[in-house]
Every structure is written in C-alpha cells, then in structure tokens.
C-alpha cells in the first residue's frame, strides 16, 4: 500500500511541476503584456521634493500646463499601479499634453507631510495621493485617499481624473 502511494506521488509530482511551470509562464506572459514601469524606481529622494516642484511650476508656466503632484513611495503597491496606469496608452498622451508630473516621496508616510499639507493633501489618509497645481504653483485640488485602493480600480478612473483636471 505504501509503495502504491509513493509511486502515485512520483507520477504526480512531475505533472504538478509542469502545471506550475506552465502557470508561471502564462502569468509572466500576462505581466509582460502590460505596460512596463518606465523606471525601476518611481519616487526620487525625499529631499528632492521642493526643488522638483519648483522646476515643474516653471515648466508648467512655460508650456501652459498644470502640475500634478503624485505623493507616494516605491514600497506602495497602489502607487506602483497608479504609475502603470499613468503610462498606459489611453492615459499617457493626456498626462504629457496637460501636466508636468512630480513624484513626491513620502518615505513611510513620515516625510514631506508638510508638502502634502501645503497643497491640501492629508497623507495620513494613505497614498497614492494627488494634488493639481496651476502654472503659478497654486493648489487647485488636493485629494486624500481617492486612489489609496488603486490596485482594485480601473485605469479609466485615472483617465477620468486627468480629463477633469487638465
């Protein structure tokens, strides 16, 4: 009886390994079909926020665009999804035509909190969080928590947001 079980395990093990390997390959193919992240890491050093925002406001003024502040961290899965959605074919042209994007690193939601507060974003409610500034650096909109469950949202929610604030 024990021999029969061992034989069955030996016979099933290769097919389970094959099935698992096939599932991994299919999963990798599905991931590869998605738009890859444009950078290995999204958010710059914490200290870069002030200078990056100032430079973005200058660019926005020159190019007649708005500034979009994306508060988050590389560790944040929802921030990663938002970044993928920003760079999808339906959203990227809209983003590039109308906004200067600034990624603001919030550490572990313990850095650049004053930057978020300055633009109407309560980072304690979660990330990613967005703020829209005009070309003079004045906050037009600051949201908290709207995209904090991004991995369960559709890319169209980002598109709608960009359309509304362009």
Features:
single chain, 166 residues, alpha+beta, Glutaredoxin, four-stranded mixed sheet, 4 strands
What is the share of helical residues? 40-55%
The pLDDT mean sits at: 83
Question: Helix/strand/pairing class, anyone?
Answer: alpha+beta
The CATH homologous superfamily of the largest domain corresponds to Glutaredoxin
> What order do the helices and strands follow?
HHEHHEHEEH
Give the helix/strand layout.
Blueprint: H1 2-33, H2 49-63, E1 66-72, H3 77-86, H4 92-98, E2 99-105, H5 113-118, E3 129-133, E4 139-142, H6 155-165
Parallel strand pairs: 1-2
Antiparallel strand pairs: 1-3, 3-4
What can you see in these coordinates?
- The relative contact order is 0.15.
- 49% of the residues lie in helices and 14% in strands.
- The chain is built from 6 helices and 4 strands; from the N terminus they run ααβααβαββα.
- Strands 2-1-3-4 form a 4-stranded mixed β-sheet.
- Mean pLDDT is 83; it is low at 11-34 and 36-40.
- It has 2 domains: 1-33; 46-165, Glutaredoxin (3-Layer(aba) Sandwich).
- The protein is globular, with a radius of gyration of 22 Å.
- It has 166 residues and is of the alpha+beta class.
């Amino acid at each position: 009886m024990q021999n029969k079980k061992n034989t069955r395990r030996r016979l099933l093990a290769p097919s389970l390994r094959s099935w698992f390997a096939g599932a991994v390959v299919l999963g990798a193919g599905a991931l590869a079909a998605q738009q890859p992240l444009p950078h290995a890491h999204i958010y710059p050093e914490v200290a870069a926020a002030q200078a990056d925002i100032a430079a973005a406001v200058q660019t926005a003024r020159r190019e007649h665009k708005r500034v979009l502040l994306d508060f988050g961290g590389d560790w944040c899965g929802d921030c990663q999804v938002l970044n993928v959605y920003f760079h999808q074919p339906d959203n990227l042209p809209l983003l590039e035509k109308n906004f200067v994007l600034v990624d603001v690193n919030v550490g572990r939601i313990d850095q650049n909190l004053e930057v978020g507060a300055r633009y109407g974003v309560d980072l304690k409610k979660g990330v990613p969080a967005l703020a829209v500034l005009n070309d003079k650096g004045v906050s037009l909109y600051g949201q908290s928590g709207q995209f904090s469950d991004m991995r369960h949202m559709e890319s169209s929610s980002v598109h709608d947001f960009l359309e509304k604030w362009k």
